[in-house]
From TrEMBL:
Organism, scientific name: Symbiochloris irregularis
Binding site for FMN: 80-82, 109, 160, 241, 296-300, 319-320
Protein name, per record: FMN hydroxy acid dehydrogenase domain-containing protein
GO cellular component terms, A-Z: cytoplasm
UniProt entry tagged with the keyword Protein transport: no
Length: 375
Protein backbone atom coordinates (compact mmCIF):
# COMPACT_ATOMS: atom_id res chain seq x y z
CA UNK A 1 0.00 0.00 0.00
CA UNK A 2 1.60 3.27 -1.12
CA UNK A 3 0.43 6.80 -0.29
CA UNK A 4 -1.38 6.87 -3.61
CA UNK A 5 -2.92 3.45 -3.38
CA UNK A 6 -5.46 2.78 -0.70
CA UNK A 7 -8.69 0.99 -1.45
CA UNK A 8 -10.81 1.93 1.55
CA UNK A 9 -10.87 4.51 4.31
CA UNK A 10 -9.39 2.11 6.88
CA UNK A 11 -6.26 1.78 4.76
CA UNK A 12 -6.14 5.55 4.35
CA UNK A 13 -6.41 5.92 8.12
CA UNK A 14 -3.40 3.62 8.60
CA UNK A 15 -1.37 5.73 6.17
CA UNK A 16 -2.37 8.94 7.96
CA UNK A 17 -1.35 7.44 11.30
CA UNK A 18 2.12 6.68 9.94
CA UNK A 19 2.50 10.15 8.53
CA UNK A 20 1.28 12.33 11.41
CA UNK A 21 3.22 13.19 14.57
CA UNK A 22 2.04 11.15 17.57
CA UNK A 23 0.47 14.15 19.34
CA UNK A 24 -1.57 15.13 16.26
CA UNK A 25 -2.65 11.56 15.62
CA UNK A 26 -3.74 11.25 19.24
CA UNK A 27 -5.81 14.42 18.98
CA UNK A 28 -7.45 13.50 15.66
CA UNK A 29 -8.21 9.87 16.40
CA UNK A 30 -9.25 9.82 20.00
CA UNK A 31 -12.64 9.80 21.62
CA UNK A 32 -13.38 10.70 25.21
CA UNK A 33 -12.54 8.47 28.19
CA UNK A 34 -13.04 4.76 27.45
CA UNK A 35 -14.07 5.56 23.85
CA UNK A 36 -17.23 3.46 24.11
CA UNK A 37 -19.22 5.93 22.00
CA UNK A 38 -16.43 6.24 19.45
CA UNK A 39 -16.50 2.47 18.91
CA UNK A 40 -20.28 2.25 18.99
CA UNK A 41 -20.64 4.84 16.21
CA UNK A 42 -18.99 2.32 13.88
CA UNK A 43 -20.59 -0.75 15.45
CA UNK A 44 -24.07 0.71 14.93
CA UNK A 45 -23.65 0.50 11.15
CA UNK A 46 -22.79 -3.19 11.49
CA UNK A 47 -26.08 -3.80 13.31
CA UNK A 48 -28.05 -3.20 10.11
CA UNK A 49 -28.28 -5.33 7.01
CA UNK A 50 -29.62 -4.16 3.68
CA UNK A 51 -32.27 -6.22 1.94
CA UNK A 52 -31.81 -5.73 -1.80
CA UNK A 53 -34.77 -5.49 -4.15
CA UNK A 54 -33.93 -6.83 -7.57
CA UNK A 55 -34.96 -6.37 -11.19
CA UNK A 56 -35.18 -2.61 -10.72
CA UNK A 57 -33.77 -0.40 -13.48
CA UNK A 58 -30.62 1.00 -11.89
CA UNK A 59 -28.84 1.81 -15.14
CA UNK A 60 -29.01 5.41 -13.88
CA UNK A 61 -28.94 6.31 -10.22
CA UNK A 62 -29.66 9.85 -9.14
CA UNK A 63 -27.63 10.81 -6.06
CA UNK A 64 -28.35 14.53 -6.23
CA UNK A 65 -30.39 16.51 -3.73
CA UNK A 66 -31.30 20.06 -2.91
CA UNK A 67 -30.36 21.32 0.52
CA UNK A 68 -31.06 24.88 1.67
CA UNK A 69 -31.90 25.78 -1.92
CA UNK A 70 -28.62 24.51 -3.39
CA UNK A 71 -27.90 21.42 -5.42
CA UNK A 72 -25.47 18.83 -4.00
CA UNK A 73 -23.91 16.04 -6.10
CA UNK A 74 -24.63 13.53 -3.35
CA UNK A 75 -25.81 13.67 0.26
CA UNK A 76 -22.49 14.35 1.98
CA UNK A 77 -21.04 17.36 3.77
CA UNK A 78 -17.63 17.90 5.35
CA UNK A 79 -18.03 17.96 9.14
CA UNK A 80 -16.45 20.84 11.04
CA UNK A 81 -13.06 19.97 12.45
CA UNK A 82 -10.46 22.16 14.10
CA UNK A 83 -6.88 22.77 12.99
CA UNK A 84 -6.60 21.43 9.42
CA UNK A 85 -3.07 22.87 9.24
CA UNK A 86 -1.97 20.14 11.63
CA UNK A 87 -2.59 17.75 8.71
CA UNK A 88 -1.28 19.86 5.82
CA UNK A 89 0.30 23.33 5.56
CA UNK A 90 -2.51 24.53 3.26
CA UNK A 91 -5.04 23.65 5.94
CA UNK A 92 -8.69 24.53 5.34
CA UNK A 93 -7.86 26.08 1.95
CA UNK A 94 -7.07 22.62 0.55
CA UNK A 95 -10.22 21.16 2.11
CA UNK A 96 -12.39 23.96 0.74
CA UNK A 97 -10.94 23.52 -2.76
CA UNK A 98 -11.73 19.83 -2.59
CA UNK A 99 -15.30 20.58 -1.49
CA UNK A 100 -15.70 22.91 -4.46
CA UNK A 101 -14.21 20.40 -6.91
CA UNK A 102 -16.59 17.69 -5.66
CA UNK A 103 -19.58 20.05 -5.33
CA UNK A 104 -20.35 19.31 -1.69
CA UNK A 105 -20.70 21.77 1.20
CA UNK A 106 -18.06 22.27 3.85
CA UNK A 107 -18.74 23.19 7.45
CA UNK A 108 -15.85 25.21 8.75
CA UNK A 109 -14.90 25.05 12.41
CA UNK A 110 -14.69 28.11 14.66
CA UNK A 111 -11.24 26.71 15.41
CA UNK A 112 -10.05 26.74 11.79
CA UNK A 113 -6.43 27.63 11.08
CA UNK A 114 -7.38 29.73 8.01
CA UNK A 115 -9.62 32.80 8.07
CA UNK A 116 -13.20 32.37 6.93
CA UNK A 117 -12.82 34.92 4.12
CA UNK A 118 -9.90 32.95 2.67
CA UNK A 119 -11.83 29.69 3.02
CA UNK A 120 -14.80 31.30 1.25
CA UNK A 121 -12.53 32.27 -1.63
CA UNK A 122 -11.15 28.74 -1.91
CA UNK A 123 -14.63 27.20 -1.72
CA UNK A 124 -15.96 29.09 -4.77
CA UNK A 125 -18.01 26.53 -6.70
CA UNK A 126 -19.06 24.56 -3.62
CA UNK A 127 -22.86 24.48 -3.07
CA UNK A 128 -22.45 26.50 0.14
CA UNK A 129 -20.38 26.99 3.27
CA UNK A 130 -21.49 26.78 6.85
CA UNK A 131 -19.64 28.13 9.86
CA UNK A 132 -19.66 25.93 12.94
CA UNK A 133 -20.05 28.07 16.01
CA UNK A 134 -18.61 27.55 19.44
CA UNK A 135 -20.42 30.08 21.56
CA UNK A 136 -17.98 32.23 23.49
CA UNK A 137 -18.78 33.84 26.84
CA UNK A 138 -18.00 37.11 25.11
CA UNK A 139 -21.20 37.64 23.08
CA UNK A 140 -19.88 40.68 21.19
CA UNK A 141 -17.15 38.48 19.81
CA UNK A 142 -19.75 35.88 18.89
CA UNK A 143 -21.98 38.41 17.11
CA UNK A 144 -19.01 39.74 15.12
CA UNK A 145 -18.04 36.23 14.09
CA UNK A 146 -21.55 35.48 12.84
CA UNK A 147 -21.88 38.78 11.00
CA UNK A 148 -18.42 38.32 9.50
CA UNK A 149 -19.44 34.91 8.16
CA UNK A 150 -22.67 36.34 6.75
CA UNK A 151 -20.70 39.06 5.01
CA UNK A 152 -18.23 36.51 3.62
CA UNK A 153 -21.13 34.64 2.00
CA UNK A 154 -21.64 31.75 4.40
CA UNK A 155 -25.12 30.35 4.14
CA UNK A 156 -25.62 29.02 7.64
CA UNK A 157 -24.19 28.60 11.09
CA UNK A 158 -24.12 25.28 12.90
CA UNK A 159 -24.16 25.90 16.63
CA UNK A 160 -22.42 23.08 18.46
CA UNK A 161 -24.53 22.31 21.50
CA UNK A 162 -22.88 19.17 22.88
CA UNK A 163 -19.84 20.85 24.38
CA UNK A 164 -20.53 22.92 27.49
CA UNK A 165 -17.06 21.61 28.37
CA UNK A 166 -14.63 19.78 26.13
CA UNK A 167 -14.80 15.99 26.55
CA UNK A 168 -11.91 14.36 28.38
CA UNK A 169 -9.61 12.93 25.73
CA UNK A 170 -6.91 11.02 27.52
CA UNK A 171 -4.44 11.03 24.63
CA UNK A 172 -4.44 14.85 24.73
CA UNK A 173 -3.78 14.81 28.45
CA UNK A 174 -1.00 12.26 28.11
CA UNK A 175 0.63 14.15 25.22
CA UNK A 176 0.01 17.64 26.71
CA UNK A 177 -1.60 18.50 23.39
CA UNK A 178 -0.77 21.99 22.15
CA UNK A 179 -0.43 23.72 18.82
CA UNK A 180 3.00 24.25 17.29
CA UNK A 181 4.39 27.78 17.51
CA UNK A 182 2.94 29.96 14.78
CA UNK A 183 -0.29 27.99 14.35
CA UNK A 184 -3.55 29.19 15.87
CA UNK A 185 -7.31 29.16 15.39
CA UNK A 186 -7.13 32.51 13.67
CA UNK A 187 -10.74 33.60 14.23
CA UNK A 188 -10.03 33.63 17.96
CA UNK A 189 -7.13 36.08 17.53
CA UNK A 190 -8.77 38.93 19.37
CA UNK A 191 -9.64 36.70 22.35
CA UNK A 192 -6.64 34.41 22.77
CA UNK A 193 -2.98 34.99 22.02
CA UNK A 194 -1.08 32.57 19.76
CA UNK A 195 1.28 31.84 22.68
CA UNK A 196 -1.67 30.61 24.74
CA UNK A 197 -2.46 27.84 22.23
CA UNK A 198 1.17 26.73 22.20
CA UNK A 199 1.80 27.04 25.95
CA UNK A 200 2.37 23.90 28.00
CA UNK A 201 0.20 23.61 31.11
CA UNK A 202 1.44 24.60 34.52
CA UNK A 203 0.13 23.72 37.99
CA UNK A 204 -3.44 22.41 38.14
CA UNK A 205 -4.44 23.53 34.65
CA UNK A 206 -5.80 20.96 32.17
CA UNK A 207 -2.76 19.37 30.49
CA UNK A 208 -4.32 19.77 27.03
CA UNK A 209 -4.06 23.33 25.73
CA UNK A 210 -7.24 22.87 23.69
CA UNK A 211 -9.15 21.90 26.83
CA UNK A 212 -7.72 24.90 28.70
CA UNK A 213 -8.56 27.44 25.98
CA UNK A 214 -12.02 25.94 25.60
CA UNK A 215 -12.67 26.10 29.34
CA UNK A 216 -11.60 29.72 29.54
CA UNK A 217 -13.49 31.01 26.50
CA UNK A 218 -16.60 28.96 25.78
CA UNK A 219 -19.95 29.46 27.44
CA UNK A 220 -21.21 26.52 29.50
CA UNK A 221 -24.35 28.55 30.37
CA UNK A 222 -25.63 28.30 26.78
CA UNK A 223 -29.39 27.60 26.49
CA UNK A 224 -32.07 27.59 23.78
CA UNK A 225 -32.68 31.37 23.91
CA UNK A 226 -29.42 31.69 21.98
CA UNK A 227 -31.31 30.90 18.75
CA UNK A 228 -33.63 33.92 19.16
CA UNK A 229 -30.62 36.06 20.06
CA UNK A 230 -28.96 35.21 16.73
CA UNK A 231 -32.23 35.62 14.78
CA UNK A 232 -32.50 39.19 16.01
CA UNK A 233 -29.44 40.32 14.05
CA UNK A 234 -28.62 37.67 11.43
CA UNK A 235 -30.49 36.35 8.42
CA UNK A 236 -28.34 33.23 8.15
CA UNK A 237 -29.84 29.79 8.59
CA UNK A 238 -29.24 28.32 12.02
CA UNK A 239 -28.58 24.63 12.62
CA UNK A 240 -27.83 22.90 15.88
CA UNK A 241 -25.15 20.23 15.96
CA UNK A 242 -24.95 17.56 18.62
CA UNK A 243 -28.58 16.53 19.08
CA UNK A 244 -29.23 12.95 20.22
CA UNK A 245 -32.53 13.08 22.12
CA UNK A 246 -35.83 13.44 20.23
CA UNK A 247 -36.96 15.84 22.98
CA UNK A 248 -34.05 18.15 22.23
CA UNK A 249 -34.79 17.81 18.51
CA UNK A 250 -38.39 18.87 19.10
CA UNK A 251 -37.27 21.76 21.29
CA UNK A 252 -34.88 22.88 18.55
CA UNK A 253 -37.69 22.90 16.00
CA UNK A 254 -39.91 24.78 18.45
CA UNK A 255 -37.34 27.57 18.85
CA UNK A 256 -37.11 27.81 15.07
CA UNK A 257 -33.87 26.22 13.91
CA UNK A 258 -33.44 25.51 10.20
CA UNK A 259 -31.79 22.14 10.54
CA UNK A 260 -30.56 19.52 12.99
CA UNK A 261 -27.28 17.62 12.99
CA UNK A 262 -27.54 14.39 14.94
CA UNK A 263 -24.05 13.99 16.36
CA UNK A 264 -22.11 12.87 19.42
CA UNK A 265 -19.06 14.80 18.21
CA UNK A 266 -17.41 11.67 16.86
CA UNK A 267 -17.45 10.10 20.34
CA UNK A 268 -15.36 12.95 21.74
CA UNK A 269 -17.81 14.47 24.23
CA UNK A 270 -20.02 12.38 26.55
CA UNK A 271 -18.67 8.84 26.61
CA UNK A 272 -21.51 6.30 26.56
CA UNK A 273 -23.73 8.67 24.62
CA UNK A 274 -25.63 6.52 22.11
CA UNK A 275 -24.34 5.83 18.63
CA UNK A 276 -25.69 8.45 16.26
CA UNK A 277 -27.13 5.98 13.76
CA UNK A 278 -29.29 4.57 16.57
CA UNK A 279 -30.73 8.05 17.23
CA UNK A 280 -31.70 8.99 13.69
CA UNK A 281 -35.00 7.11 13.34
CA UNK A 282 -36.37 8.36 16.66
CA UNK A 283 -35.50 11.93 15.86
CA UNK A 284 -37.01 11.66 12.40
CA UNK A 285 -40.21 10.33 13.96
CA UNK A 286 -40.25 13.29 16.36
CA UNK A 287 -39.63 16.10 13.86
CA UNK A 288 -41.02 14.64 10.62
CA UNK A 289 -40.26 16.78 7.60
CA UNK A 290 -40.12 20.10 9.49
CA UNK A 291 -36.40 20.76 8.91
CA UNK A 292 -33.52 18.92 7.22
CA UNK A 293 -31.96 16.19 9.34
CA UNK A 294 -28.23 15.57 9.02
CA UNK A 295 -26.13 13.08 10.95
CA UNK A 296 -22.45 12.33 11.51
CA UNK A 297 -20.32 9.77 13.33
CA UNK A 298 -18.57 6.74 11.89
CA UNK A 299 -19.70 7.15 8.28
CA UNK A 300 -17.01 5.33 6.30
CA UNK A 301 -18.75 3.40 3.53
CA UNK A 302 -21.31 3.97 0.80
CA UNK A 303 -23.57 1.48 2.53
CA UNK A 304 -23.30 3.61 5.72
CA UNK A 305 -24.75 6.57 3.84
CA UNK A 306 -27.54 4.40 2.51
CA UNK A 307 -28.36 3.14 6.03
CA UNK A 308 -28.43 6.66 7.50
CA UNK A 309 -30.78 7.83 4.75
CA UNK A 310 -33.02 4.78 5.11
CA UNK A 311 -33.42 5.65 8.81
CA UNK A 312 -34.46 9.22 8.02
CA UNK A 313 -31.38 11.40 7.48
CA UNK A 314 -31.38 13.76 4.50
CA UNK A 315 -27.59 13.76 4.32
CA UNK A 316 -24.52 12.75 6.33
CA UNK A 317 -21.39 14.59 7.38
CA UNK A 318 -17.99 12.95 7.40
CA UNK A 319 -15.22 13.89 9.80
CA UNK A 320 -11.90 12.14 10.39
CA UNK A 321 -11.46 10.61 6.89
CA UNK A 322 -11.24 14.15 5.51
CA UNK A 323 -8.29 14.89 7.81
CA UNK A 324 -6.71 11.57 6.83
CA UNK A 325 -7.00 12.44 3.13
CA UNK A 326 -5.58 15.88 3.84
CA UNK A 327 -2.63 14.43 5.77
CA UNK A 328 -1.78 11.82 3.15
CA UNK A 329 -2.21 13.84 -0.03
CA UNK A 330 -3.53 17.37 0.57
CA UNK A 331 -6.43 18.63 -1.55
CA UNK A 332 -6.19 15.61 -3.86
CA UNK A 333 -6.40 13.29 -0.85
CA UNK A 334 -9.62 14.95 0.33
CA UNK A 335 -11.06 14.72 -3.18
CA UNK A 336 -10.15 11.04 -3.33
CA UNK A 337 -12.03 10.43 -0.07
CA UNK A 338 -15.14 12.19 -1.33
CA UNK A 339 -14.97 10.49 -4.73
CA UNK A 340 -14.62 7.08 -3.15
CA UNK A 341 -17.60 7.69 -0.89
CA UNK A 342 -19.64 8.83 -3.83
CA UNK A 343 -18.68 5.85 -5.96
CA UNK A 344 -19.44 3.42 -3.12
CA UNK A 345 -22.77 5.10 -2.36
CA UNK A 346 -23.81 4.75 -6.00
CA UNK A 347 -22.78 1.12 -5.87
CA UNK A 348 -24.87 0.59 -2.72
CA UNK A 349 -27.87 2.22 -4.41
CA UNK A 350 -27.49 0.05 -7.52
CA UNK A 351 -27.04 -3.24 -5.72
CA UNK A 352 -29.93 -2.59 -3.33
CA UNK A 353 -32.32 -1.54 -6.09
CA UNK A 354 -32.56 2.17 -5.19
CA UNK A 355 -32.35 4.40 -8.28
CA UNK A 356 -33.14 7.60 -6.35
CA UNK A 357 -32.66 8.97 -2.84
CA UNK A 358 -36.44 8.82 -2.35
CA UNK A 359 -36.37 5.06 -2.90
CA UNK A 360 -33.97 4.54 0.05
CA UNK A 361 -36.56 3.64 2.65
CA UNK A 362 -36.65 1.96 6.07
CA UNK A 363 -38.04 -1.24 4.61
CA UNK A 364 -34.69 -1.83 2.87
CA UNK A 365 -33.04 -2.32 6.29
CA UNK A 366 -33.12 -5.16 8.72
CA UNK A 367 -31.74 -4.50 12.19
CA UNK A 368 -29.93 -7.35 13.93
CA UNK A 369 -32.50 -9.41 15.77
CA UNK A 370 -35.45 -8.21 13.69
CA UNK A 371 -37.26 -11.12 12.00
CA UNK A 372 -37.17 -11.27 8.23
CA UNK A 373 -40.97 -11.26 8.38
CA UNK A 374 -40.76 -7.56 9.33
CA UNK A 375 -40.04 -6.70 5.71
C1 LIG B 1 -9.98 16.30 15.09
C2 LIG B 1 -11.42 16.68 15.24
C3 LIG B 1 -11.75 17.99 15.44
C4 LIG B 1 -13.10 18.36 15.57
N1 LIG B 1 -13.40 19.67 15.72
C5 LIG B 1 -14.70 20.04 15.81
C6 LIG B 1 -15.04 21.40 15.91
O1 LIG B 1 -14.20 22.28 15.88
N2 LIG B 1 -16.36 21.70 16.05
C7 LIG B 1 -17.34 20.74 16.08
O2 LIG B 1 -18.53 21.06 16.19
N3 LIG B 1 -17.03 19.44 15.94
C8 LIG B 1 -15.74 19.06 15.81
N4 LIG B 1 -15.44 17.74 15.65
C9 LIG B 1 -16.52 16.75 15.51
C10 LIG B 1 -16.89 16.55 14.04
O3 LIG B 1 -17.56 17.69 13.54
C11 LIG B 1 -17.86 15.37 13.83
O4 LIG B 1 -18.96 15.50 14.70
C12 LIG B 1 -17.22 14.01 14.04
O5 LIG B 1 -15.84 14.01 13.75
C13 LIG B 1 -17.95 13.01 13.13
O6 LIG B 1 -17.49 11.74 13.33
P1 LIG B 1 -16.41 10.98 12.38
O7 LIG B 1 -15.10 11.61 12.63
O8 LIG B 1 -16.50 9.58 12.89
O9 LIG B 1 -16.88 11.10 10.94
C14 LIG B 1 -14.11 17.37 15.51
C15 LIG B 1 -13.76 16.03 15.31
C16 LIG B 1 -12.42 15.68 15.15
C17 LIG B 1 -12.09 14.24 14.90
C1 LIG C 1 -10.54 22.74 19.22
C2 LIG C 1 -11.64 21.83 19.70
C3 LIG C 1 -12.56 22.55 20.60
C4 LIG C 1 -12.30 21.23 18.53
C5 LIG C 1 -13.22 20.09 18.83
O1 LIG C 1 -14.40 20.23 18.86
C6 LIG C 1 -12.70 18.77 19.03
O2 LIG C 1 -11.49 18.59 19.15
O3 LIG C 1 -13.53 17.83 19.12
Amino acid sequence: MTDQHWVNLDELEALAMKKLPKMVWGYYSSGSESEATLRDNRAAFLRYNIMPRLMVDVSKVDTTLTLFGEKLDFPLLIAPMAYHKLANPEGEVATARAAAACRIPMIQSTMATVRKEEVAQAAKGAPFLMLQLYVTKNRDFCRNLIMGAQKAGYKAIAVTVDAPRLGHREADERDSFHLPEGMAPVELDSLVSAEEHARQATGDEPKSAVARVFYNQMDSALTWDFVAWVRAFSSMRILVKGILSPFDALRAVEVGVDGIIVSNHGGRQLDFAPATLDCVANIKRAIGDTVPLLMDGGVRRGTDILKALALGADAVCVGRPILHGLAVNGQQGVQDVIKMMRRDFEQAMRLSGCPSLKSITRDKLLKQGEPLSRL
